[in-house]
């Protein structure tokens, strides 16, 4: 028996009940996976073109009913309507990209066979796994799981989705919306519950599992998947840095740092949390950031604000990082302890934070920024790379943005902007180190949800028959001589 039998989601601001669902135990999860197996066979046979039509229909549902979905997201997470709408808009773009490019990326491709077997037609195609399990977090209850769901569906898989316990109604909405354009089979099912339900899905024998959440849970999910050798994608947290070089557009950099750090209440895996600014422009940058931050407040549902923190636990993390930093000599140049007025937190900007403080090393996941002065961009790169995480990053420089970007240990980097990689569906998304591995989005994201299948098709029998017990010494000598001749060439 699961520890809980029902799951209730609440509005973070008012505490009002949003929805209640029965918790799915291991048997219910197994039953969903079995139903998904039948659905997967049908969905695969539908072919790329028809799946594309259906998924475009799903995108149309998201676009046409955006206000309804945005309101539900805002209810369950406490985020502002604008932040909810931005989340839906970038999801629609991802969904349409996955639907539109699946055939090109995954269909059979013929490859050059090489020197040894010119008589062979070599081809590779990417076939669906079958059933993909998706476990999601609460901070982007649409965009984040859909990064896996959309790509898994476009690749021809059926999906069983375990949403965060904080955002079950949004997950129900997504599955219902898809079923209006795919009424025949349940290609997307939702199983509800807490960690136990997620653990049951990880152990259920799904053909692939995509997990998004904290690093600690990611390790547990991987251990569960290891029992069946279930392949996994692990998308975990981050501590994303921004590097500001001496030749940066400081106004643009300050604006991007503030938005990248505070939108969605800072509860973004790729939110900017640390800023490293070269000494010659440090004072100017901080002054501009302080000025801009003064115009932004939590609890304002418009362009100059953002919503509530989704969970009380996350507020505690922000409080702990702030008080630890202040007790170790940091200064708050914007806000301070008084900025924390649950469920809201107004922007907080800290300077002079020691590099080994929790506010620099651990994921804060709140509307806070640390700003550190560095002597050179080399020092900025070294410090930016100085945490166990490696998810996203940002660089501001008029002349060396791309060069600096390539030196950052991160899965994605925005140059002269923050987080723009999330809005480019062709770009793969994922991390290194404690931020996880594997990729969603783009062609890599499609291939992540498909198994590689290679065929070597011998069209005519070769003149030199080597791979047989009937080969002659002469054939072997000719082959060795040929390889030596070619091997000597550059
Ligand atoms: P979490 O790890 O607490 O939970 C994530 C999901 O895992 C939830 O659905 C939860 O119920 C489930 N779960 C818990 N225990 C489990 C277990 N033992 N086995 C299987 N599933 C289990 O994370 P969260 O607090 O919901 O999400 C916030 C975290 O997600 C942050 O660290 C954030 O950075 C990260 N995140 C990463 C990305 C990315 O793409 N890299 C995107 C969004 C959020």
Q: Can you tag this structure with a few keywords?
A:
binds nicotinamide-adenine-dinucleotide, 6-stranded mixed β-sheet, 490 residues, alpha/beta, 15 helices, 7-stranded mixed β-sheet, 22 strands, globular
Describe the structure.
- By secondary structure, the protein is an alpha/beta fold.
- Helices cover 42% and strands 20% of the residues.
- It is built from 15 helices and 22 strands.
- It has a 7-stranded mixed β-sheet, sandwiched between helices. It has a 6-stranded mixed β-sheet with strand order 7-6-5-8-9-21, sandwiched between helices.
- It starts with 5 loop residues before the first strand and ends with a helix.
- The mean pLDDT is 97.
- The site of nicotinamide-adenine-dinucleotide has 29 residues, from helix 6 and helix 7.
Helices and strands in order:
Elements: E1 6-10, E2 17-22, H1 26-64, H2 66-77, H3 81-106, E3 109-111, E4 120-128, E5 131-135, H4 143-154, E6 158-162, H5 168-181, E7 188-190, H6 195-202, E8 208-212, H7 215-226, E9 232-235, E10 240-244, H8 250-262, E11 272-278, H9 279-293, E12 297-298, E13 305-306, H10 312-327, E14 331-334, E15 340-341, E16 344-345, E17 348-351, H11 358-361, E18 368-374, H12 377-384, E19 392-396, H13 401-406, E20 412-415, E21 436-437, H14 442-448, E22 450-458, H15 473-487
Parallel strand pairs: 5-6, 5-8, 6-7, 8-9, 10-11, 10-19, 11-18, 12-13, 17-18, 19-20
Antiparallel strand pairs: 1-2, 3-4, 4-22, 9-21, 14-17, 15-16
Helix pairs in contact: 1-3, 1-5, 1-6, 2-3, 2-5, 3-4, 3-14, 8-9
Residues 135-140, 144, 162, 164-165, 194-195, 198-199, 202, 212-214, 217, 220-221, 235-238, 269, 363, 391, 431 line the site of nicotinamide-adenine-dinucleotide (NAD).
